[in-house]
Write a structure and sequence with these properties.
Length: 488
Amino acid sequence: MDSAGAREAPAPDIPRRVKVASLVSLNLSRSPRTGQQLKVLAGRAQKTLVNNPVRLVPLGFLAAIALGTLLLMLPVSRVQDGDGGFMPAVFTAVSAVCVTGLVTVDTPNYWTPVGQGIILLLIQVGGFGIMTLSSLLALLVRKHLGLRTQLIAASETQAMNLGDVRRVLVFVAKTTFAVESVVAIALSARFWVINPHDPLAAIWGGIFHSISAFNNAGFALYSDSLISHASDPWIMVPLCLAVVLGGLGFPVIHELLRRNGTKKRWSVHTLLTVWGTVGLLAAGALLLGMFEFNRSETLGSLSPSGKVLGVLGLSVFPRTAGFNNIDYGQASPETLLVTEVLMFIGGGSAGTAGGIKISTFLVLAFAVWSEARGHDQITVWRRAIGSAIQRQALSVALLGLGAVVAGTLALLVLTDHSTEEVLFESVSAFATVGVSMGITADLPTAAQWVIISLMFIGRVGIVSAAAALALRGRRLLFKLPEEQPVIG
């Protein structure tokens, strides 16, 4: 080929992506200001997504879920290493960190003791709170808390005053260890009596179910959950007490102990939580006992004392504990509806319970009562409830209802199960309860991701999840003219 032909040869075909990348790298190398701009943007992104305590909570839970999934995917965590290990691992990790209890595999038979230990650790981390745990570690190592760490801990523990964070964190740790230890000793002794030939299994069972109960997780080392022990008072009573204590919330427990139970000095939050818990437990026991006491499919075959314990469990465990003491697939439609209501309400704030919380439900109930009486102010025990709290309660309830409806609709599209079954599953997942009508293991992969999303949103909190996704919030410095649309 001559020189003219060489000069006229076409240039090689360079992909457009390579050209763009080369131009970008060339411009970056020639512009010293670009590196500074990138650093500024990175700093802003970090400030927006990490430094805000409300947004850091979901990130902490996601990190724990990712680590738990990797650990559960290890061959040493499973009895049989085979295909499909990712979905059982990620589903179980989310359920454990979000202290729910829904499972797609049989916990005692699918997971080895190592895997069960990982699940227990995830339950403890999830119940205790990622931010609370990290703050305690900082306290132990550095002997003091920085301002940022205190803000993060205040967001997780709902501490009223920033100066109380350190004291609240220590109290949370002591309370958790004390309750779990006492319940573990009681359960281990009972399991040892039942199976005297294997004391190690009895001790492990006591520790596992104690942590699962106090953290309202609902994981059990029995394939039927607690159905085989539903009439055993030495197992049911300690578990119910642990569930109720964990569901009250640490601020309530702290106030009850600090004020020695003097009711006249209780805060409105403690009054709402304590009396709301008592009322819901009593109403749940009355209604569920009326529906299931003599039904042969559930409690009818038990002794009178076993029926009483069964009714107690039916009222306590839907408060986000997740243990099954009956086969909900055989329960009456009335029982399922009452259970769904109890699950959706949940337990106390800043505790291990889920749901929209008792205080949210009661604030809305008092708002309806005040409106019916024509009062401009919502009053609870001679205390007024601010408009900001009312808006928060309404937002949490409506967003929670929207999440349940969206999850139910998605499950109806993705599965062949009835509306009754998928509604029960959706409420149980969002409220981080864990009871099931037995359809969880049969759900397709897409439906399992729906349940995973509901569990995560329910544990992190609707408002926290929305705040984590919001890039920024604005506070209006002016007020617009008011209108009065017709209501009702």
